Amino acid sequence: MTMVEDAGPESGRSDPSASVDSDGDARWQQIEARIAALVAARPRLTITKDSAVWLSIGPKVLKRQLYVDANAGWESYYLKLEPGAEVPPHPHASVEECLVLSGEIEVDGDIAREGDLHIAFTGHDHGTLTSRDGALLYIRGPLAPLDENTPGDPFDL
């Protein structure tokens, strides 16, 4: 059992009598409390264009995480598709919005171009998403599952 030291109320940590049990519940409560304190102290957030990195999540597909709201169960990110990129078919646990910022994509025969909004509705799978010449997408949708046995992330992140 590990004791957590008190660093004062402004630290966001709990009192010294709090202990971390074997499964870490107390630690997660402290983390959640700290995040809540940060949100309360800063009611808005600007994410600058140079503040994050692009990660390769599949052949010719890059992802730049923008924001995650774990409590609400959604995330937002950019998806950069290089020419010839394909995103495998996948289900949607809730509504996913995909705004085409540049380029063009095709999903199940529907073409979405710059400025178009593609919406995938809850409970409906869609086929392979392709981009012949490349595209930049803004996506807001359900958090990708952390468990590899749970469907939802087409690249099994």
From TrEMBL:
Domain ChrR-like cupin: 45-139
Domain of life: Bacteria
Region (Disordered), start-end ranges: 1-25
Pfam family, one: Cupin_7
Gene3D superfamilies hit by this protein: Jelly Rolls (2.60.120.10)
Protein name: Cupin domain-containing protein
Organism: Sphingomonas echinoides
